[in-house]
Amino acid sequence: MRKLLIAAAALAAGMMAGCGPAAAQQAQYFEVPKGGRPHDVAAAPDGTVWYTAQRTGKLGILDPKTGRAEEVPLGEGSAPHGVIVGPDGAAWITDGGLNAIVRVDPKTRAVKAWKLPEDTGYANLNTAAFDGRGRIWFTGQTGFYGRLDPASGDMKVWKAPEGRGPYGITATPAGEIYYVSLAGSHLAKVDLESGAATVIEPPTPDQGARRVWSDSQGRLWISEWNSGQLSRYDPKAGAWKSWMPPGEKPRTYSVYVDETDKVWITDFAANAILRFDPATETFQSFPSDRPGANVRQMLGRPGEAWGAESGTDRLVVIRY
C-alpha cells in the first residue's frame, strides 16, 4: 500500500494578509508512481481519481480508500495533459504527445485515440470540455481549438483568431463553450455550430489568462498567470471584476468552481491551494507540506477538491 500522508496545512498556516481565518479542513496527500509528474486530475464516478502522468505517457487511477494507484499506458510517444470525465463516464484526455484526443474505458481500460488531422501539425493539446450536445471541445497552445463528435468520429480544428495561446476551456451549465488564451491574454466564446471564436478582451492587459471555469450561473472565472489575479466575467452583464490573492507576486495557475460556487485556485508563488468565497471576498490558504508542489489543475466532486502536485508526484484532496 502506498503511503498516505495527512497534513492540516491550513491550520499550520494561520492567517494570511487578505485571507479569512485558517480553515479547519485537512489536506490529504497520496503518493503516486515516481517520475510521472501528474498534471491534471479528475474525480471519477466510481469513487476513484484519474490523473495524467505526463512524463510517462499514462493515465493514472488512484483508489483513495487504499491509496493504491495503477497506470494505463496510452501509447508510444504519449504525453497527456488534461483529463476530464465525459458524459459517458469515461476518462477523456488531451494528449500533446500523441496529438490526439484519447478515451479510456473505466471498466475495460481500453484505450481509443482520435488523431488530429495531419494538416493541423503539432497543436500542443491542453484541455477539453463537453458541450451540451455530447461533443468534446479542446485547445492547442500553438494556436488551435477544435471539436470532436465521438458518435460520428467527425473532428474539426480551427485556427485561433489571435494565434498562439489557447489553453483553458470550460462549458457553462447551458452547454456553451469558452476558452482562454495564455499568450493572447483574452477570453473567447465559441459558436457551437460554425466554430467561430469571438474574442472578449479583459480590462487588464497582458494578464496571461491561463484557465477558465464556469460557475452555476454561467459566469466565467479566470486564473491569470502574468498578473496573478483571479478574475470573473459575467456574460449577461458584460462586466468584469478581479481580485488579487494575498502574498508577494502571486502566480495563479488553475481555477475550479465547486458545487457551492466557491472558487479554488492554485498559487505557485505561495506553494498553496486557495479557496475564494465570492460572498465575503476572502481567501483561505492550504499550503503544501512540501516545497515545489506546482498544482497545475484542480477538479472535484461534492465535498472534495482534488489537485495534482506535479512537482512532488502526489495527489492532494481537501475535504470541506
From TrEMBL:
One function term, GO molecular function aspect: carbon-oxygen lyase activity
Domain of life: Bacteria
Assembly and interaction partners: Monomer.
A GO-annotated cellular component: outer membrane-bounded periplasmic space
BP-aspect Gene Ontology terms: antibiotic catabolic process; response to antibiotic
Enzyme class label: lyase
InterPro entries in the record: Vgb (IPR051344), Vgb_bact (IPR011217), WD40/YVTN_repeat-like_dom_sf (IPR015943)
Presence of keyword Signal: yes
Signal peptide: 1-24
Necessary cofactors: Mg(2+)
Family: Belongs to the Vgb family.
Organism in which the protein naturally occurs: Phenylobacterium zucineum (strain HLK1)
Assigned keywords, A-Z: Antibiotic resistance, Lyase, Magnesium, Metal-binding, Signal
Enzyme Commission number(s) of this protein: 4.2.99.-
Known role: Inactivates the type B streptogramin antibiotics by linearizing the lactone ring at the ester linkage, generating a free phenylglycine carboxylate and converting the threonyl moiety into 2-amino-butenoic acid.
One Pfam family this sequence matches: Vgb_lyase
Matching SUPFAM superfamilies: NHL repeat (SSF101898)
The protein's name in its UniProt record: Virginiamycin B lyase
